[in-house]
């Protein structure tokens, strides 16, 4: 089966850098995804790492180490609008299934 | 593109009543997923379809839940009879193919309250 672990809450100040970690256990690994969800809103896709290393998209970067079963989301130049929940997710690929399993999410609070 | 469209946005119903949630995926997307989100259990996958065919319904809680996808542009999730513990936000999502590079696109969700 799958399990993902993330910190439940992270607090940072505007303009700072914050890192949200995710460790996973999965029987078959096909990449790590990150989603953002504002309160009352829909999850929105941020990034996907299939291979080891850092992927950068603007202020957000995502890192993966398959040997460590570990990844993180890095948010730079934090803005108030970055206050949201962030979820890591892995694909569950057993047999013919193809579905994303989400972590419990990390609530990021950005303070002025 | 209007994105994934769900209706209704909010639904309040009495225990024992039938509830039907609706979803229109993004045109051209061949995968459709139904997720449920609660504080206790987070985002749980209920069922997903590929080319309108149900592939995995192992997340459906019990026989009270059923889902259909009669065509590529419409899916329903039905709960009959509803119970208070079904109160949650139900999300529909769609994706193109099996590649995760572009992720799932989620709808705005239906907030269901069963009293």
Describe this structure in words.
- The complex is a heterodimer of chains A (112) and B (115).
- Chain A has 112 residues and is mainly β.
- Helices cover 0% and strands 57% of the residues of chain A.
- Chain A contains no helices and eleven strands.
- Chain A has strands at 3-5, 9-13, 18-25, 32-37, 44-49, 53-57, 60-65, 70-75, 84-92, 99-102, 106-111.
- In chain A, strands 2, 4, 5, 9, 10 and 11 form a six-stranded mixed β-sheet that branches.
- In chain A, strand 7 (60-65) and strand 8 form a beta hairpin.
- Chain B is mainly beta.
- Chain B is built from no helices and eleven strands.
- In chain B, a hairpin with a 2-residue loop joins strand 7 and strand 8 (74-79).
- Chain B is globular, with a radius of gyration of 13 Å.
- The N and C termini of chain B lie far apart (36 Å).
- Chain A binds chain B through residues 30-31, 33, 35, 41-46, 48, 50, 87, 91, 96-105, and chain B through 31, 33, 42-43, 45, 48, 50, 55-56, 91, 93, 98, 100-109.
The biggest chain-chain interface is: A-B, 24 and 22 residues
- State the low-pLDDT regions of chain A, or none: none
Q: How big a fraction of the residues of chain A is strand? A: over 45%
SSE run of chain A: EEEEEEEEEEE
Shape of chain B: globular
Approximate strand percentage of chain B = over 45%
Shape of chain A: globular
Please estimate the helix content of chain B. under 10%
